[in-house]
Specification:
460 residues; three-stranded antiparallel beta sheet; 17 helices; 6% strand
Length: 460
């Protein structure tokens, strides 16, 4: 009987073992290739969708605070390039599963977020407008000239020296302390200063606790950003839940184009959005968007509707101002009595109307020229003193100037939010087309389905 070689037995054994190992290793290698291709496809889908989301309309966000993109931005260029860069053949079928179209619910969230981080600047701009009116009023009264004359006089030198000298101030306080009704002046001043110091310490501790910043620690900067982001989210939620109506009618009244010309004869911008941009950058011709949002009608009917509101408001203000003026009313009553006597004589006493009715008719016609003049100013983008009839000190009512948008804003308050949102959405869609806020892609390759969905976090 022939003996088997030991070398032959080892070769057979190794062949069996190695063939199994090679098969297992090849299987694992193929699995890794499939997994790597799957990860590459998922990553390419993610990059493609994020690229589309990052291509939001910059002008739309700048004017209206809305994150959205149009169908023109939807493509598969980056997806294909990402696959080719990783040696994956894009021979599968890429399908747009769903594109989430923006509705009034998302517009509501966008407006709440708009005022959460821009409301302070908008309020400051309104305050600066009042300050500008005060400065102009000072010019009209000659206050600036009087201050200039005083500062250039010799008395100003003694006055400034007395204010800057602490010893003189202390003497003044000592003299004031002897006035009747003024007791313990020094102790009260010290209590007030202590109260101010306690406020400063409290606010400083809170700031240090919430914004503990260290230039050598990057995590402190991240903490500050997280704190600011949480504050922004909380303020947006508060506005959406409790104060949305207040910001919604303000947004509709001041952030859309209206009949007011955008520039005056000198080329200066007199009508602009809340962000300070000209509406001409959005559309070439002057559009009556605020009038449409207010009335629901387009074109001339909306202007007529809002014009009636403007006329009635200004006319009533002027009538009230006339009725509260004794000098003008004495003239009106005298004319009314004459007309009443003439009517009685002509009709033989058959037609006897109360003199108050004649007075009211006369007042209406008397203030009509002033109303027409005020309306011309309003439609030219200027403001008028609508509250002259209030018992305010001289000049105060001139500071609070009311414009065309201000009057419409008051009446916009009574339009339901859902109606205002729907009309604003129609205006925005007219200028920018159908807007999308999210989407999902699916890619099928060799029977394996890959899906990715994403959208803007502001609407989630």
């Amino acid at each position: 009987m022939r003996k088997l070689s030991k070398h032959g037995s080892a070769t057979v054994f190794l062949s069996i073992i190695l063939s199994a190992l090679i098969l297992v290793e090849s299987t694992y290698l193929l699995k890794i290739v499939v997994i790597n291709r799957s990860i590459t496809i998922d990553r390419a889908l993610k990059i493609q969708i994020e690229s589309i989301l990052s291509s939001y309309n910059r002008e739309l966000y700048e004017y209206y605070g809305i994150y959205a993109f149009t169908s023109n931005e939807v493509n598969d260029t980056i997806f294909c390039n990402a696959l080719l860069a990783n040696n994956v053949d894009p021979n599968g079928s890429l399908v747009i599963e769903n594109v989430e179209v923006m509705t009034i619910d998302e517009l509501r969230l966008a407006i709440a977020n708009f005022y959460s981080y821009r409301g302070g600047a908008i309020a400051m701009d309104s305050m600066m407008g009042l300050l500008s009116n005060v400065i102009n009023l000072c010019d009209d009264f000659g206050i600036k000239e009087k201050i200039s004359e005083f500062t250039s006089s010799g008395a100003y030198e003694y006055f400034s020296q007395a204010i800057s000298d602490s010893r003189e101030v202390s003497k003044i306080l000592e003299v004031v302390s002897y006035f009747p009704g003024v007791e313990n002046l020094e102790s009260k001043i010290q209590q007030f200063l202590g109260f101010v110091d306690s406020i400063n310490q409290t606010s400083g501790n809170q700031v240090n606790q919430n914004l503990d910043f260290n230039v050598n620690d990057a995590s402190s900067l991240i903490g500050i950003l997280d704190t600011l982001n949480s504050v922004n989210i909380q303020s947006a939620d508060f506005i959406d839940n409790y104060a949305f109506h207040l910001v919604n009618y303000h947004y509709a009244s001041y952030n859309f184009d209206c009949v007011i010309p955008q520039q005056n004869d000198e080329g200066e911008l007199i009508d602009e959005s809340l962000q300070g941009g000209a509406f001409a950058q959005i559309h070439d011709s002057n559009c009556f968007d605020v009038e449409y949002i207010m009335s629901g009608s387009s074109g001339l009917p909306s202007i007529v509707y809002c014009g009636q509101i403007i006329y009635c408001t200004v006319q009533i203000s002027n009538i009230v101002q006339c009725l509260l003026d004794p000098e003008r009313m004495s003239i009106v009553n005298g004319i009314a009595e004459i007309i009443d006597a003439i009517v009685i004589v002509l009709t033989g006493g058959v037609l006897a109307l109360p003199p108050e009715l004649y007075s009211f008719i006369i007042v209406n016609f008397m203030v009509l020229p002033e109303t027409i003049s005020n309306m011309i100013d309003l439609y030219d983008g200027e403001g008028i003193a609508l509250f002259d009839f209030l018992p305010l000190p001289d000049g105060i009512s001139d500071v609070v100037q009311v414009g065309y948008r201000d009057i419409l804003c008051f009446f916009m308050f009574f339009v339901p939010d859902s109606v205002v949102l729907e009309r604003m959405m129609n205006v925005i869609s007219r200028d920018y087309g159908e807007l999308s806020i999210g989407m999902s892609f699916s890619y099928n390759q060799a029977g394996q389905m890959h899906t990715f969905e994403d959208g803007y976090q502001m609407y989630s």
